[in-house]
Each structure stands twice: as C-alpha cells, then as structure tokens.
Specification:
Helix content: 40-55%
Shape: globular
Strand order of the largest sheet: 1-3
Number of strands: 4
Number of helices: 9
C-alpha cells in the first residue's frame, strides 16, 4: 500500500495535477509504482476536462473517467505480470483512451516557445507570438496545461537550473544563464518549488 504525507491512501490508479510544493510519498516494501509523465498539454487528451481543477491534488482516476471497470481490469492485469509487460499494458491502455483531437494549437505554440527559451521568454512576447491577449492565453493554458504560462515558464526555468547544476556549474553562473536577476532570486524560486535551497540539491539523486 501507499500513502501521501497528508495521510491519504494512494488509489490503485491515481491522477496527480501540478503541485506548488514538494510532496512526500510512502510505500510499503511490496508496493510497485508505474509513473506516467505527460507532456505539458498531453494530459488534456486523457482527461477531457480543465486540468486546472486537478492542481495541488491527487485523486482516484476512476472518479474522472467513464472507464472505471477497465481501470480495475488493468490493475488486476498489472498484479499478474512483471517488468516490461506492465509498461506495455499501461501504454496500450492509455493510447486507446486518448482522444483523437490534438491539444489546443495556440496553447501548444505557447508551450513550445516557453520550452525553446528555457522559461525565459517574456509574457508580452509570448502573447504577441500566439496572437492572444494575456488573459485569453492564461484561460487556455489553465485549461490545457493546468497552470498559467508564467507558472509553467518558472517550472521550465527550474528544470534548466537542475540541468546546469548537474553539469557542474556554480550558482552565480546558473543564475545568469537561467535568466534570474541574481542568485537570491534563484534561491527563493528553488526553495518555493523544491522545499530546500539549491545548495542542498544532490545532482546524483535529483533530491
């Protein structure tokens, strides 16, 4: 069995939205977990609802799906198989579930621009690029990605910080390369997301 730090039991199949802080999961010795990570706009093709409503929450996937029986069947199959077979089962299940329609193209264009800039693109430039007002782009992004473009950009920028740290860069160099005004801004942003200053980050473990 598994539990979250709030004492909530983890369902057999769970959907976790974006979180504003670090969380702790505890699992028993005989507990196995398969984690599926979606692209920024990818989960919208699975849920068919605004992703913003799942922010800072972990819920039972059957609660937001009309495929509850199929999910329970998948869970039973996973218990009876091992290793690579489990991954294939999950992949097949998700591919048959995903809707055919592509993510909102304007939101996807904004996501692509944010990722190309490693999170440093200005919102004014982003809105001009996709041809939407800031409020319109934010509404679309909250629905398709789950967060505003500004918040997503901050996550992309922190991922870049981690990559730079793994490459051995010092924090002054990292702050400049990642577009922070100074090192203190980097530290504040890192603490807010990771729960600890970057000096405590271990590139070898990712924690």
């Amino acid at each position: 069995s598994g539990s979250l730090e709030e004492g909530q039991n983890i369902p057999q199949a769970a959907l976790t939205g974006g979180w504003d802080r670090l969380r702790a999961h505890e699992h028993s010795a005989d507990h196995a977990v398969i984690v599926v990570k979606f692209t920024a706009a990818g989960a919208s093709g699975l849920v068919g609802d605004s992703l913003e409503k799942f922010a800072n929450t972990t819920i039972d996937l059957t609660a937001v799906s009309h495929r509850a029986a199929l999910i329970r069947d998948l869970s039973a199959q996973l218990e009876a198989t091992t290793g690579q077979q489990r991954i294939h089962l999950v992949e097949h299940f998700l591919l048959t579930w995903l809707r055919d329609d592509a993510p909102d193209p304007l939101t996807q264009a904004a996501v692509n621009a944010i990722e190309r800039s490693r999170g440093t693109i200005r919102i004014s430039k982003l809105t001009g690029l996709v041809g939407l007002s800031q409020s319109a782009l934010e509404r679309r992004s909250r629905r398709t990605v789950g967060v505003t473009p500004r918040k997503y950009a901050s996550l992309v920028r922190l991922r870049h910080v981690v990559c730079l740290r793994e490459a051995g860069a010092d924090f002054t160099t990292i702050a400049h390369a990642a577009g922070y005004a100074d090192q203190s801004h980097l530290v504040r942003d890192f603490v807010q997301r990771a729960g600890a200053p970057p000096t405590r980050f271990d590139p070898a473990t990712g924690r």
